Amino acid sequence: TIADTKAFVEAVDAKVSDSADWGIATPYLALQAAKEGTKNLLVAAENCHFKDSGAYTGEVSVEMLKEIGVEWVILGHSERRQYFGETDETVNAKMLQVLKNDMTPIVCVGETLEEYEAGTTKDVVKTQTVAAFKDVCPKCASRSVIAYEPIWAIGTGK
Questions:
Q1: Could you confirm whether domain 52-57+67-158 is CATH 3.20.20.70?
Q2: I need a surface site. Which of 71, 119, 131, 152 has the fewest CB within 10 A?
Q3: Which residues form a coiled coil (predicted)?
Q4: Does 49 participate in catalysis according to the annotation?
């Protein structure tokens, strides 16, 4: 909630050190509250749309995110892939849109339990990474973040 975001930012903001970049990714409705409440945290959106504009009901464009000062966007999160059918191609389209708008993408990659048990982790992660960075210039790639998210480890205790 917005109230939870405000409370979290208030509790954490002054405690972060300069030794690393610290951030929070919030639902869309809480992004502005996070931006307004922090001096030290990076604020990231949990997703964005891959088009500048158009009739995409319920989607949020990078232009909308930039308007409220958001500079970071998570792409390819396992829940987006699982529940919304996002593909490597969709992640790439979003990646190109984020980079085109001088924002920083946080690209999530990771394998399922079946892929992990089959020993294909490296192949899966490489495939996802190569697909996400298709047509991305080296300079743009250098300002991107890759987040390894082993899907099988989320909430399993493994």
A1: yes
A2: 119
A3: none
A4: no
